[in-house]
Amino acid sequence: MSMAFTFELVSPESLLVSREVDSVVVPGADGDFTAMPNHAPTMSSLRAGMVTVEAGGSKEQYVVLGGFADVQPDSCTILAETAAAPGEFDRDILTSRIEEARTRLGETSDDEERSELEEVLGSLTTLHEHILPA
Asked: How much is the pTM?
């Protein structure tokens, strides 16, 4: 029998998910990680990407654009800036974020800020091109 833990995905607009799950793949700022029951307490900022939730052998995915993940041994809570199921995601928001990142990248001369913006732009364009095709 597999162990389960509580997962919640919250956006400013709504509580998208609140249920018992087996695991959650989180698009952390430093790379994807899998949260499972008895996970060490972890707090991570999120990059644009997909959250994959597995429960009872089935998988669901959700698009997130930024936010934070709080993982505890018995729970995982994602507080997302923007979140939705892929079929319900507003592609205009993603396009707007890509354009904003490109504009800021063209305007900055700070190497550290340039590096951060390049990472953000990479995550956004990957999400747009591979996960949310037109």
From this structure: 0.81
Q: How far apart are the first and last CA of the chain?
A: 41
Q: Answer positive or negative: Cα dihedral of 57, 83, 46, 107.
A: positive
The number of CA neighbours under 13 Å toward the Cβ of 59 is 7
Classified as helix, coil or strand, 15 is strand
Which tokens is 54 given? 């597995």
pLDDT in tens, 25-74: 999 999 999 999 999 999 999 999 999 999 999 999 999 999 999 999 99
Domain ranges of the chain: 5-86, 90-131
Instruction: Provide the edge-to-edge strand list for the sheet that holds 23-28.
Output: 31-35, 23-28, 49-55, 58-64, 83-84
Homologous superfamily of the 5-86 domain (CATH): F0F1 ATP synthase delta/epsilon subunit, N-terminal (2.60.15.10)
Q: Give the Cα separation of 35 and 70 in Å (integer).
A: 10
